[in-house]
Amino acid sequence: MKIFNIVGARPEFIQVGPLLRAIENHNRKRLKPSIQSILVHTGQHYDYKMSRVFFDQLKLKKPDYHLEIGSGTQGYQTGGIIVRLERVLLRERPDLVVVYGDTNSTIAGALATAKLHIRIAHIEAGVRSFNRFMPEELNRIVTDQLADLHFCPSRTAVRNLAAEGIKEGVYFVGDVMYDSILFNIKKTVHSNIMRRLKIQPKKYGIATVHRAENTDNEKRMVSIFETLDKIAGTVLPLLIPVHPRTRKRILDLGMKLSNMRLIDPISYWDMIKLEKNARVIFTDSGGMQKEAYYLKVPCVTLREDTEWVETVKAGWNRLAGWKEKGIYQALKIIKNRRPHPPQVYGNGLAAEKILSYILK
Predict the structure, then answer these.
(1) Which domains does the chain have, with CATH numbers?
(2) What would the pLDDT profile of 194-233 be if each residue is shown by its tens digit?
(3) Known catalytic residue: 210?
(4) What is the pTM of this model?
(5) Whole-angstrom Cα distance, residue 198 to residue 74?
(6) Candidates 150, 210, 243, 340; catalytic one
(7) Are 294 and 178 in contact (CB under 8 A)?
């Protein structure tokens, strides 16, 4: 049995690890059928700090194919991946193609595969923010319509698919990112990021801003960063690992940020260590919202909506939007004591469940 895994961005590098390990364990036990696993890297994230470091640290196999698409508009990336991936698919003819999450690599992988009548599995299926202005939302919707197997991280995701008429090939398996956190949390002892940055546990906050809805909108971008800079100067020191695209926007807009500490993108182990020891996390990232939840760190989401509604219902995440008043209000509320977060995203064995359903 030949399975393709298509990845291209940071979240997907984290998500693919658990399934690759499950396949390796299957083959090591000499179970039938034997699985040939092919890893395809689209090159959507190509900088060492956004790509290679994850492969090195997470011990991911070297990609069998690297499409080297690089940066560009969504149309350029999506179209380029389809063209280059089609050639690989025609050469290899896999039995199944697995796509992850909601990136340009996700939708491009699904479109190229569907056109060749090859079966598709979507990991993180059914997740919805119900905001179609987000390119990620459109990527999810189209990918789920094309997929044959839908692996959902939550019961909410299963219900979302049912509401769209998708009821066949739908499985609640839990979140592979939770699998990854559980597998890698002990390895963060090898990280010296706290000592390197000279910071103490619970004496700082961490923030990330990279969504196009924020970075491409000057008013939102300026409001978010000026507010975070004010918080960093009066409430709590803030560290911000800056996405290259976001750093360029900061420079283009001429923003003077005197209080926040901007650092380069960091490795997965370093990020998990910083998140785990932070007092609060500010982010517009879906992945970081979940990581905060798993690590029991309060999260302020710099959006008006989220696809991870369970984190909000549990009281560990507040939707703040992009205005100063909303961010301060969310920060004030999130400081209150919260109950222990419920395990709504599975038990850390999502990858094993996914593989069992694929084999069936």
Answers:
(1) 2-175+346-359 (3.40.50.2000), 187-334 (3.40.50.2000)
(2) 999 999 999 999 999 988 889 999 999 999 999 999 999 9
(3) yes
(4) 0.93
(5) 38
(6) 210
(7) yes
